[in-house]
Amino acid sequence: MILYGGETYPSDQQDRLLSDLEKRIDRTLCGEGLSRETVISTVDRLAERIEAGEFDELINSFAPDKAQYYKETAVRAMKRETAHKRLAIELPEALFSGCTERLNKRVFPLGVLFHIAAGNAEGLPALSVYEGLLTGNINILKLPSADNGLTLTILRELIRMEPALADYIYVFDTPSTDLEAMKKMAELSDGIAVWGGETAVSAVRALAKPGTRLIEWGHRLSFAYISGYADKETELRALAEHIASTGQILCSSCQVIYLDIDRLEEAEEFCRDFLPVLDAAAEKYLHLDIGEAAQLSVRRYCEGLERAAGYTEKSKKRFNGKNSSLTICKSSTLELSDMYANVLVKRLPEKHILPVLRRTKSLLQTAGLICRPESRDRLTETLLRAGVNRVTLAGSMSVPITGEVHDGEYALRRYVRVTDTENC
Amino acid sequence: MDHRKELFDWKEPYDTAGTSDLFIQTMRDCCRFHYDNCPEYQRILDAADFRPEELKEEEDLERLPFLPTVFLKKHHLFSMPLNRLPIKATSSGTGGRYSKIGFDAGGLAGAFKMVIRVFSKLGLLSPVPCHYIIFGFKPHRSNHTAVAKTATGYTLLTPALSRTYALKYENGKYEPDLEGTVKAFQKSAGSAFPTRTIGFPSYTWFALKLMEEKGMAVKLPKGSKIMLAGGWKQFYKEQVDKHEMYALAEKILGIGEEDIVEAYGAVEHPILYCDCKKHHFHVPIYSRVIIRDVETLKPVENGKLGLVNLITPMFRGTPILSIMTDDLGILHDAKECGCGIDSPWFEIIGRAGFVDIKTCAAGAAEMLKGGTGK
């Protein structure tokens, strides 16, 4: 399904619609532009309707377990207060406007943004478009292949509520293999926001003309760091619930639990304590479909085979629960776990934090920090210096906090340009 | 006594009940051979405390350790020196990794006999020459995928008048040439001889759609057939319902449902499963199928959904005697089909895995391994 100028079309109309798009875009860019207030108030009104339960059935249909969480997160992200707060932090007047003696500075939209969205978080493509609208851009969105119709529903509803948005939202369900179409969309754009792994990013780099601004979101890893506790039981439970409820599929999900210990044997004690907590959380939050369960079982079985065949180093020790597992590894390198409540446990004494994490500096995102209250400031400082972009409590690693940076940057700032006009 | 030769020489390809003992004997020989000649395989069996001699009856097959295709894609195992393996085929690598499987001469001879017996049982062998349209790769020395080898192999079923390929090797890569296949369809419609298409369901479907869009329809001569093999691969999302495809083939080419044959197989398990007239994949005498619970990996009873475990003693080059696919399927009793073939049949329902979800954390891991230095 394609959303184009406020109308929906079947996918096979893509090439015809794309060939007319440049003319439409030029016409829109000649116009008065999109008022920020229009965007904020329309999205805010939609948030109210979501809050009132108008979309419960839809939300329930794709995320029955986490419907309430999604609903709250979406509503919070869409509220007027959030928009104002974000704008105040990310695009403060003082930073861009104001005059030097000879120059008048203004903030303009980039123009046309091409969003290539990922499918690992529900509603993310729509959020990406919202950020583009908030900065006044025309948005072309390529849906992820996993999209379940939610994005289209939200965006169509916005246009229905405010027809002026129709010229600023174009959604295509083009498969990533249709390079011709992707190239066309890239050529029409001033900036490309790509969410995804290496394959997606490299493909986009090949598509984009030099000079097109690339905004690459994604490919990040996060971890928890434990150095003592303020309240052990509560903190471990919060960490376990974070791990199970995100399924470890987000950039901000904990892949590795680092322990501030000198001897690896001490990790075993931690695993024995933590495994039942993690298992209980997985039982409560993690619901795999049959294909996911199958993949996970086969993966575990393969590990057994690899050990038996002599492929794996004997440097790993695994603690299996019913719904989860912990694997102690000798190496300290930050790496991807098996996900879905299968966590790696590694040793990382405080003095090694910086050298070890620097090895993966371009991939660091969130550190969930559990520690004694008196060490918190010092450890936070060390983690940030090592390249981590967010330090949170262990339970809230993936909870969005209004005004926060995204992978070390303010998203809205990447979607605008600053112009200078010489005063006469 | 060469049990394998005896099994592959058996006249009736679906006589699974009559060949049960022979099948187990052949499995035992095969297992012993790989145990003695592939050290990694030996360690795997030792760790599971399983000896080849424990294969005494069909029930014992479920205890034989199986190798998942993901394992074979990561580790390339051989039980014979590479120079004794005439064909080393790779899988088509859905997801970027390839299995490398060694096929020995004895196994290939068996494979040839199997293909002849299965096709003749299903009425696919014919002395009448025909035109071939191949929705697959045109052979090129750079392509070692089994798919490319088998698709061309199928054109030996009947004398070939012409071969048109939908994927042509140009400028160092394969490019689809659907227009070319559409022209071939038009040309063959006027021929006195039938046409057979062979290959990926996706490209077959795209060509049919292209003709529909152009408002074209032809009536291919009697005896024409559509043969589908190789799965939807990267076009997973475009996968259409079988019946939709049957209806379009009737409309565009005048080929009825009874003349559409689908094959299932994998490079890690090169047994030819062809669907019967009721479009069911029956298990031939050369293999057995066990469906396993997705969590415990223990066998489930017929009629229940699970992971598809395929078993065959066909090859000695690589220990692929029991492999676990990524496919989810159901095994049914023979009597539930009613086509007359007296052997169990299975259907493929889906695939294991986090299919459509590409996690961003996993993307980061790719970068680590790729060492792109970004």
Query: How big a fraction of the residues of chain A is strand?
Result: 15-25%
Radius of gyration based on Cα positions of chain A: 23 Å
- Name the chain pair whose interface involves the most residues: A-B, 52 and 51 residues
Biggest sheet strand order of chain B reads 6-5-4-7-8-9-10
Q: What is the general shape of chain B?
A: globular
Number of domains of chain A: 2
Order of helices and strands of chain B: HHHEHEEHEHEEHEHEHEEEEEEEH
Secondary-structure arrangement, i.e. CATH architecture of the largest domain in chain A: 3-Layer(aba) Sandwich
Tell me what portion of residues of chain B adopts beta-strand conformation. 15-25%
The percent range for helix content of chain A is 40-55%
Helix proportion of chain B: 25-40%
Class inferred from helices and paired strands of chain A:
alpha/beta
Number-wise, the strands of chain B total 15
Task: Note down, in words, how this protein is organized.
The complex is a heterodimer of chains A (424) and B (374). Chain A is of the alpha/beta class and 424 residues long. Helix content of chain A is 44%, strand content 20%. Chain A folds into 2 domains: 2-218 and 407-422, Aldehyde Dehydrogenase, Chain A, domain 1, CATH 3.40.605.10; 221-396, Aldehyde Dehydrogenase, Chain A, domain 2. Chain A is built from 16 helices and 16 strands. Chain A has a 7-stranded mixed beta sheet with strand order 2-1-6-5-4-7-8, with helices on both faces. In chain A, helix 2 (36-51) packs antiparallel against helix 4 and helix 11 (232-246) crosses helix 12. The longest helix of chain A is centred in the middle third of the chain and has 21 residues, at 265-285. The radius of gyration of chain A is 23 Å and the shape is globular. Chain A starts with a strand and ends with a strand. The relative contact order of chain A is 0.13. The model of chain A has no long low-confidence stretch (mean pLDDT 89). Chain B has 2 domains: 3-111 and 276-351, Rossmann fold; 123-264, Rossmann fold (3-Layer(aba) Sandwich). Chain B is 30% helix and 23% strand. A 7-stranded mixed beta sheet of chain B has the order 6-5-4-7-8-9-10, with helices on both faces. In chain B, strands 1, 11, 12, 13, 14 and 15 form a 6-stranded mixed beta sheet that branches. A two-stranded antiparallel ribbon of chain B has the order 2-3. In chain B, strand 4, helix 6 and strand 5 (160-170) form a beta-alpha-beta unit. Chain B is globular. Classes of the chains: A alpha/beta (424), B alpha/beta (374).
